[in-house]
Structure formats: structure tokens, C-alpha cells
Amino acid sequence: MKPFTMKVFYLFLSAFSLFAIRAQADDKLQAGIEQLQAGVKTVSTEKVTYNQEFTANGDQMYIVQLKQEEVGAKGKSTQTIFDFNLADIDVNLISRLVSGNVMYVNLKAKNQQKLFRETVNGVHNGYSNEIKIFVNNVDEARQIIDNLKMVVPIANDLMKKRLNLTDYNEMLNWLKANITNVNKGTSSVEQRFDFFPEIAGKVAIYGVETNGSKSKTITSTFNLADITSNLVFFEVKGKDVLVSLPTVRNNKLIKVSENGQPTSYDKEMTIYAAGIDQARDLATVLKAIIEKANEVVTAALPKTSSSVPAIIDDMNTSVAKIDLGTTQISQTFTPDCVSELVIITSTAKSSKEEHYAFSFRDLNPALLDYKVRSNVMEINFQTLAGQKLVKVIKDGQLQSYTDEFSLSVNDPEDARSTVYRLKKIIQLCNDQYKSSVPSGDMKTITGWLTANIVDVNSDETTLNQRFTNPDGDDIRFEVTTSGTKTSDVEVFEFNLCDIDANLVNFSISGKNLFVKIETRYKQKIIKAYKNGKNQSFTSDLKIRVNDVEAARNIIEAIKAAVQKCK
Q1: Among 103, 131, 162, which residue terminates a domain?
Q2: CB 362 within 8 A of CB 381
Q3: Do 350 and 388 sit in the same domain of this protein?
Q4: Calpha distance 459→273 (Å, rounded)
Q5: Among 22, 65, 431, 446, which one has the highest count of C-beta atoms within 10 angstroms of its own C-beta?
Q6: Which of helix, strand or coil describes residue 158?
């Protein structure tokens, strides 16, 4: 037999085997249903007669109905109908119970959920989590219990295989066809599902809320990748069956609009279902498509270059203008690894300008996240280890250094692509980083420090700083602080080999940025003078710097110089 023919033969054999297994399961289910139909009978006591009938849906035999008519001694009757799926029965809780002179088989729903639709005298009475099948004697009870324990597992297996949807687009179309209007007794819920082929994962659910003669259209727009698949569930509230969709990390990522106007963001939404079986199907398909959506959305993220300026230019295009109705926000990053974010927020009456100077290398990519604050979607930036390395200027005035800031975005789709670009920028900036500190011997490095530890102006104070290396490892650091009325000169003398390289770090105090140096074991061996007079020995000193990058380079240089001592 040729290879191709053999392959076709095996495929045919596999399909035939699956068909045979399914047919065998259907036959066993049908046999069990027939025995239940025969075993569920009329039961009479001294005061009450229970006329009972058990039937199954011809096409879907796991969907069954139990009809009970309770007739009292005076002829008054009450008809109760339970419509349910055999797969919803907890097979471990099927039991025989006795109450006085009445014996019955007790059925409970899985997880005590209200999954059994109850209709009393023709009126839908909501859902219950328990059903009683009345019996005449213990033998009838045993037969019903045995048959139920046979058919419930079969129903469970058939339900798992009922929806054979594997393709993402196929699932989208199924949801569009099955999220439709739902009747609620004398009223109805209007709803429909749609998707956006041009934006991976983006969908919308449109609903119409009617109150008397007034109605409004509520649109919930979200990305399937922003929903937590394992938390999608269905529940019964009164007479309504609802499917709930909670967002990832409980963030408000579902954009809600009323009659076309954005109103808020929500962290959960619900879909109405016509019944338990439709709700189950919706939850099953939604869970499956959400898992697929994560792959689809990831594959559709923008392709980026290896050029940081090019990626920042692309990012600027998507975040440049944020329209919040009465408020307009303009935002721009300067295109470099050491960047500045300029944000201008304008209203009809005022305008404010903010500058955030930072290095992308200082941002923690693991903490980049987007969330809603005051109905504005923002991306939050946090520095590594919470260091306050972001310089802030608001309306021309220097503020305290901070460890976080935020960027506004139009919607979750912009947020997702922007976070993706930001992580790429951080990676590239780390990969492409080149030190400004020269390599060489200690004299070369201390010479560089002498040239780069410079004067700093702060408000009404000027600091003249001189870092010199008079001999060998010895360092002299002189700081002249000049104010409007006074001037002080401080001198620190120490040996570089006494410095602990691991303790050379940033030191931030409000608006002031320093490089802090400490001795090994924090020994007080740094000689100090002030205005020519001896001061107490100290274990540390601080060098004032103008910006984070200058501080970073000085830290790197001092550590490199200390390493030369080994």
C-alpha cells in the first residue's frame, strides 16, 4: 500500500473509532434513560399522590425533564417541572432519603449551584439546586440510583466533546451567533457580540437597557486577552442565568460607553444566557478563546527595530495626544536611553507642564502595568529597587526626586503596545549601554573624577567641589558652600583603599542628589575639617551632583578605582 493511501486509511480508522465510541456512549445513555423513564412512577401516600414522568430530549439525551404533579386528598394539584442536564448532577451526592412515610431519591447539583430550572404551574420559578424523585419502595430507589450513576458520567463525557471548536476565528463567529437577545418572562434583554478583525483580541458586547419609555445602549469594549480565563463562570441570580467575565488582576480594563459616549472602565462584565446549557456553552467557548487570544494578541504586537530612537518615535505617535473631552494631554519622550517625558495638560482655563528626566535602564520592566485612575487609563513606571532616580520639574519648578511616574494612554490596546515597546527599549538600552568612565590605572580614573566632580548650584546656594588625588591612593575632597550671606569650606581626606565599593551608591534627599561614599566596616577613618578646624573623624561623605547620569558615572568610577586596590 502506498504511504499516502496508508495515511488516509489510518485517518479513516481513527475517525471511525471515535464515531464508534460516541455511538456506544449514546447507546448506553439511551438504555439508561429508558430504564429511568420506566422506573420513575406514580407514588401514593395516605394524603398525597405524586404523578411523575421522566423524559429526555431526543437530540441531546443528557438534557432531561422531570414532571411532577402533586395531588392532595381534596383534589388540589400543583405541577412542578424540572428541566436540567444530567451532567449537572453531583454523582457522589445521589442518595435515598426518607421523610415520614415518603421515600425519595435526592439529587443535588454540583457545587450546590442552582442549575435545575423550576417551573410551577406553568410559571418559571427560578432555579434550584436539589430535586426529589419519589419512590414506592427501596427497590425502586436502588434501580433509579443505579441508573443515574451510570448515565451521569456518560453525560459528563458527552458534554466535554459536544463543542468541537478549536480555531480562534471559528470561536469568534460562534460567540457572535450565540450571544443574542434573551427573553426574561414579560421582558427581554437585548445583547449582541461583535469583534474587530483589524485589532487582535478586541471585542465588544452591545446591550440595550430599557426603563419605561426610555432606553440606552451600553457598549462594553475589551480585549479577550485581558480576561482571566480560569475565572470565567456562570451563575444563577433569581431567574437570570449570567456568565461573568473578570479582568486580569481585577484591573478596570473594560471600557464602558453609554449611547456612544465613554463613561467609565469596569473590572467585570456579565452576559445573559437563555438557560443553564447555553451559559455552560458560553463559558466553555469563552475560556477556550481567551487562552487562544493571548497567543493571537502576542503574535500581533508591533514589530520593533533595534533602534531605540525609532521605537520611541513610534511610541510617541500613539501617546502624543490624549483627548479626555474637557481635558487635553500632550506627551512626548525624547528619543534616547537617557530620556525626558514632557506632559502638558490643558483645559479651557489652565495649563500645566511636567518634565520627568530618567534613564530607561533604571525602570523595572516587570512592574510596567496599565490601569485606570479617575477614568483615565495610565501606564505606571517604577524604578528598580524603588530608588528615587527620576528628576521632576513642574511648571518650571524643581520637585523632589521620585521612584515612579505615569503615562496616559487612549485605551487598553494602546497600553498593551506601549508596554511592549517600553520593555523592548529597556532591554536595548541595557544591551547597548557603554560606560563613560575610562579604563586604566587608578591615576587615570581619579583624573577622570577630578574633571567630572564639578560645581553645583542649588536655589540660593553654590557648591564648589574639588576632588584631587595628591599622592598614591590618597584623596582630598574639598567643598565650598556659598550662600547669600555666609561661606563654609569643608575638607575630607581619605584613602580610596579604605572605601567599601559595595556601599558607594545614590543618596537622595528631596530635591538634592548625592553620591554617598562609606568606609569598609563603617570605620570612622575619614579626616574632616571645617573652615580650617579639625572635626570629628567620620565614616562617610557625600558628593553633590547635578543629575542621575552624572551620579551614575561617578559611582562607577569610584568603584573601579577601589577595585584597583586589590
Answers
A1: 162
A2: no
A3: yes
A4: 66
A5: 446
A6: helix
SS3 annotation, 338-354:
EEEEEEEEECCCCEEEE
Identity of the amino acid at 331? Q
Residue type, 284: T
Domain of 385 in residue numbering reads as 308-431
For 409, which DSSP code?
Answer: E
Joined grid coordinates for residue 416: 498593551
User: Taking 80 as the threshold, does the pLDDT of residue 11 lie above it?
Assistant: no
pLDDT digits (tens, 9 = 90+) for 196-254: 999 999 999 999 877 677 888 999 999 999 999 999 999 999 889 999 999 999 999 99
Instruction: Give the total number of structural domains in the chain.
Output: 4
**Mean pLDDT throughout 295-300?**
95
Burial 127-163 (b: 16+ CB within 10 A, else e): bbbebbbbbeeeebbebbbebbebbbebbbebbeeee
Residues 6+ apart with CB under 8 A from 6: none
Over residues 78-84, the mean pLDDT reads 97
pLDDT in tens, 256-287: 999 988 888 999 999 999 999 999 999 999 99
Mean pLDDT computed over 410-414: 91
**pTM score, whole prediction:** 0.79
- Cβ partners under 8 Å of residue 131, min gap 6: 66, 82, 84, 106, 107, 116
The CA–CA distances, whole Å, from 442 to 366, 505, 556 equal 37, 19, 13
Give the mean model confidence (pLDDT) for residues 1-26: 50
124 & 240 share domain: no
Residue 192 pLDDT level (bands cut at 50, 70, 90): very high
393 with 354: CB under 8 angstroms?
Answer: yes
On whether both 83 and 132 belong to a single domain, the answer is: yes
* CA-closest candidate to residue 474, choices 499, 506, 453: 499
Number of separate helices (H) and strands (E) present in the chain: 8, 36
pLDDT in tens, 306-363: 999 999 999 999 999 999 888 999 999 999 999 999 999 999 999 999 999 999 999 9
Strand partners of residue 50? 43, 70
Ramachandran area for residue 395 (φ above 0: left; ψ -120 to 50: alpha; else beta): left
| Same structural domain, 323 and 292 | no
Q: In what order do the strands lie in the sheet with 540-544?
A: 505-509, 512-518, 540-544
Helix, strand, coil shares of the chain, percent, nearest 5, are 35, 40, 25
